[in-house]
Design brief:
Helix content: 10-25%
Number of strands: 6
Radius of gyration: 23 Å
Number of helices: 4
CATH superfamily of the domain at 30-81 and 100-142: Aldehyde oxidase/xanthine dehydrogenase, a/b hammerhead
CATH topology of the domain at 30-81 and 100-142: Aldehyde Oxidoreductase, domain 3
CATH class of the domain at 30-81 and 100-142: Alpha Beta
Structural class: alpha+beta
Strand order of the largest sheet: 1-5-3
Length: 173
C-alpha cells in the first residue's frame, strides 16, 4: 500500500474529540428561543398520501408550526439539492430531479418525511408529531419483500441468512 491514493491512511484531526466524547453536534446546541423539530415519517416503502390533518398538532401546547408537503410547496420552498454540482461529458449542467423536503402526494421509501412539527421543546414537538392524523393507500413496493426460497427448493433461491449471536464465521465452528 502506498502513502497516497486509494487505500492510504489519512491522518484525521477530528477523531480524538469524537473518541473521547468531546465532539459537538447540532443536537448539543441550546440557544434562547430555539425551536425543536420532530419529523413524522412514513412506515411504508411506497404509498399514496390520501390526506394529513395537522389541526390537533397545531393546537398542542408549545407548538410553533406544523408543515406538510402541501405547505412547503404552497410556500415555494424548493427541494433538496444535490450536495454538489456535476457537469456532464459535454460540459452542461447536471440534470437534477426535484426532490421535495417533505413528501407531497407519494412516499417512496420507509422513513420518508410526511410532516414536521416544530415546538418550543423537543418533547412538545414529539407529542405534536404523534397526534398528526393521516391516511395513505399502500402501493406495491418496487423491490420484492418475499423471503428467499430455501436452497433445496430447486428454484435457484439463495440460502436463508445465518442468525447467531456467535460472530465467528459459521464455517469455522
Amino acid at each position: 500500500m502506498s502513502d497516497t491514493g486509494i487505500g492510504a491512511r489519512v491522518k484525521r484531526k477530528e477523531d480524538l474529540r469524537f473518541l473521547t466524547g468531546a465532539g459537538r453536534f447540532t443536537d448539543d446546541l441550546d440557544r434562547p428561543g430555539q425551536g425543536h423539530a420532530c419529523m413524522l415519517r412514513s412506515p411504508h416503502a411506497h404509498a399514496r398520501i390520501k390526506g394529513i390533518d395537522t389541526s390537533t398538532a397545531a393546537a398542542a401546547p408549545g407548538v410553533i408550526a406544523v408543515y406538510t408537503g402541501a405547505d412547503v410547496e404552497t410556500d415555494g420552498v424548493g427541494g433538496l439539492p444535490c450536495g454538489w454540482g456535476i457537469t456532464s461529458k459535454d460540459g452542461g449542467a447536471m440534470v437534477e430531479p426535484k426532490w421535495p423536503i417533505i413528501a407531497r402526494d407519494t412516499v417512496r421509501f420507509v422513513g420518508e418525511v410526511v410532516a414536521v412539527a416544530i415546538a418550543e421543546s423537543e418533547s412538545q414537538a414529539r407529542d405534536a408529531a404523534e397526534v398528526i392524523a393521516g391516511g395513505s393507500e399502500v402501493l406495491p413496493a418496487p423491490a420484492p419483500t418475499d423471503p428467499p426460497a430455501p436452497p433445496d427448493s430447486g428454484d435457484g433461491g439463495s440460502p436463508p441468512p445465518v442468525i447467531s449471536s456467535d460472530h465467528r464465521d459459521p464455517h469455522d465452528r
